[in-house]
Design a protein that fits this description.
Elements: H1 3-12, H2 22-30, E1 33-37, E2 42-45, E3 52-58, E4 61-66, E5 72-78, E6 83-85, E7 96-99, E8 103-109, H3 110-119, H4 121-147, H5 150-165, H6 179-186, H7 190-202, E9 206-209, E10 212-215, H8 218-224
Antiparallel strand pairs: 1-8, 2-7, 3-6, 3-8, 4-5, 4-7, 9-10
Helix pairs in contact: 1-2, 5-6, 5-8, 6-7
């Protein structure tokens, strides 16, 4: 399978593109190129994402911001089939994107993507729905930072990741996360995150093995996240 066929195969297996015809997929496929990223490798640092749209083909991507002191605040983790960068309608927000693990990313010029959206209104509607979900994620992030304590934010993060990429049989969240990664995602310090992760492990709610979180008691974790 050559590179072009591989890109097309990935597109066919992404829900976002499932309603497109073979010809439409092939046309979209021609406009983009794939690039591999290693673990913890930056995909962009602001303002590199001003005119580029990115699509996750494989792996997980962390999005966030860096303050004046160099401290990182992660806002979301994206998986296969999700878009980021200069997505039309989303505006330019700056920040950074970094591979959590080994990743394959499809890269497309923003103007090319906008032309494709204009020609495919049904596909545009899907993108608008995705943007709405992203806005909800950001609003929830802000509310959590203001109204919830660090332990609750950690519980909500872990439960959300478990729902998104957890193995229901083993309980493991498939995304590899260090204590620092978790701290960045909840707006805390590594020391504080480590303290609460240890408490959750001691209470039998989670386990932590080789940078992978195992959710032992998902219902209890959900209650602690105040999501029920």
């Amino acid at each position: 399978m050559n590179a072009g066929e591989l890109k097309l195969w990935y597109l066919k297996n992404i829900k976002l593109f499932k309603d497109l015809s073979e010809a439409e997929l092939a046309k979209f496929n021609e406009k983009m190129y794939m690039k591999d990223y290693g673990k913890k490798e930056y995909i962009y640092l602001a303002p590199d994402n001003l005119n580029t749209v990115y699509l996750v083909k494989h792996g997980n991507i962390e999005l966030g911001y860096i303050d004046e002191s160099g401290r990182e605040l992660a806002i979301d983790i994206l998986g296969p089939g999700e878009l980021f960068g200069a997505v039309p309608g989303q505006g330019y927000g700056g920040g950074y994107a970094r591979a959590v693990d080994k990743a394959i990313i499809c890269i497309l010029d923003r103007s090319e993507f906008e032309q494709f959206l204009e020609a495919h209104p049904e596909f545009s509607l899907k993108i608008l729905k995705l943007l709405g979900l992203k806005i909800n994620v950001l609003e929830n992030k802000i509310q959590n930072l203001v109204f919830k304590d660090v332990k609750t934010r950690i519980c909500e993060l872990l439960y959300s990741l478990y729902e998104k990429s957890g193995d229901p049989r083993s309980g493991f969240i498939k995304i590899t996360l260090t204590h620092q990664d978790i701290a960045n995602l909840v707006g805390s310090t590594r020391e504080t995150a480590s303290l609460y992760l240890s408490e959750l492990k001691k209470d039998g709610v989670i386990d932590y093995v080789r940078k992978k979180v195992k959710v032992i008691a998902p219902q209890q974790l959900q209650r602690m996240a105040r999501m029920v």
